[in-house]
């Protein structure tokens, strides 16, 4: 089986040294950089916006995976695309017109992603499968880093894997929240292709490279 891609989430990074930390993650073999955008409305936290994506884009050579946890994401798709996002994920729970927003992301030149809160069933993907490149399975309730992985979500990952394989497409499954050396194996076995990880990479006691190495080693077991 192919190895899982690692997408460090800068939510757990030291923002005073953001460029340096992104460069470190990149040098240590990160496959993508995950950027969590929160608006204080869809989720009870406020984080970063397009200016931070632009700053990361100036140092990153790997793709920027932008996760919009905001209401009315259609209003900001173009702005994030212009800031250097390669993929943009929106929450189905935040979109009254999901089909239109996914089309808008593709038209802006980015890879469209669909993010699912823990309570949202896998079946939602079936109606938009031909419009997305990525599905983000939230394994915590979005809003904060450092939360505990919801183990029952592996069943949803398996259901999505089956749906994607049956359709014969190559939609990526990324898993977001509480992914670490103890949990990465179960998401990989369930069929995920991208592991998003914040705390266990940027706050690893031995540094960012050690965090990525530990995750890779655990996923290879
Ligand atoms: C949570 C975010 C996640 C978060 C993951 O709302 O979407 O990307 O940064 O952080 P950890 O790995 O610390 O759970
Ligand atoms: Zn995220």
Question: How much of the residues is beta strand, in percent?
Answer: 15-25%
End-to-end Cα distance: 11 Å
Q: Kindly state the number of beta strands.
A: 8
Which class do the helix and strand fractions yield? Answer: alpha/beta
Which strands sit side by side, in order, in the main sheet? 1-8-7-6-5-4-3-2
Present the secondary structure layout.
Blueprint: E1 5-8, H1 18-27, E2 33-38, H2 50-59, E3 64-69, H3 77-83, E4 87-91, H4 98-107, E5 111-116, E6 134-138, H5 154-167, E7 172-176, H6 184-190, E8 194-197, H7 199-202, H8 208-220
Helix pairs in contact: 1-2
The structure holds D-xylitol-5-phosphate (DX5) and zinc ion.
Name a few traits of the molecule.
single chain, 221 residues, 8-stranded parallel beta sheet, 8 strands, binds D-xylitol-5-phosphate, binds zinc ion
Describe this structure in words.
The chain is 34% helix and 19% strand. It has 221 residues and is α/β, with parallel strands linked by helices. Strands 1-8-7-6-5-4-3-2 form an eight-stranded parallel β-sheet. The chain is globular, with a radius of gyration of 16 Å. Bound molecules: D-xylitol-5-phosphate and zinc ion. Zinc ion (ZN) binds next to β2. Zinc ion (ZN) is lined by residues 9, 34, 36, 67, 176, 196.
């Amino acid at each position: 089986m192919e190895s899982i891609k690692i997408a460090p989430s800068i939510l757990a990074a030291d923002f005073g040294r953001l460029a340096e930390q992104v460069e470190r993650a990149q040098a240590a073999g990160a496959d993508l950089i995950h950027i969590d955008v929160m608006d204080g409305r869809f989720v009870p936290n406020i984080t970063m916006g397009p200016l931070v994506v632009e700053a990361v884009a100036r140092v990153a050579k790997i793709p920027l995976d932008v996760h919009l946890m905001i209401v009315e994401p259609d209003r900001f798709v173009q702005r994030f695309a212009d800031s250097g996002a390669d993929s943009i994920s929106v929450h189905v729970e935040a979109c009254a017109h999901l089909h239109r927003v996914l089309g808008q992301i593709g038209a802006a030149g980015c890879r469209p992603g669909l993010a699912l809160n823990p309570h949202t069933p896998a079946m939602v993907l079936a109606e938009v499968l031909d419009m997305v490149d990525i599905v983000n399975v939230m394994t915590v309730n979005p809003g904060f880093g450092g939360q505990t992985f919801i183990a029952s979500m592996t069943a949803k990952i398996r259901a999505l894997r089956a749906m994607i394989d049956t359709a014969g497409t190559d939609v990526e499954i990324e898993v977001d929240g509480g992914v670490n050396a103890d949990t990465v194996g179960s998401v990989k076995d369930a069929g995920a292709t991208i592991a998003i990880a914040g705390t266990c990479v940027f706050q690893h006691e031995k540094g960012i490279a050690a965090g990525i190495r530990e995750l890779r080693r655990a996923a290879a077991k």
